[in-house]
Amino acid sequence: MTTINLFKVINCGDMFQVPSKKAESGTINKRVVLLKEMGNAWANEYVCSLFGNNATLQLYKDDLVAAALSFTTSEHNDKTYQEITVTDIRKINN
Question: 34-67 burial by CB neighbour count: b if 16+ within 10 A, else e?
């Protein structure tokens, strides 16, 4: 089951290409975005990666979006890292 939440765009980086073994062309689109949960000034913020077609969506500061996030963790050299990926995103007209 996928949970969709509402977020406000705080910052959106430029789209760029990264190598991908899964893509026919050998590269895939990527964009990094900072999303904030709807709520008060202390609501959670997430630095997320968008890949493929999701990365082509042009987002601007203060845009309202509905998005599903995927959280993964990995360990390297006794340190734990978390990656947050946007699995689905829709811009809401505001």
Answer: bbeeeeeeeeeebebbbbeebbebebeeebebeb
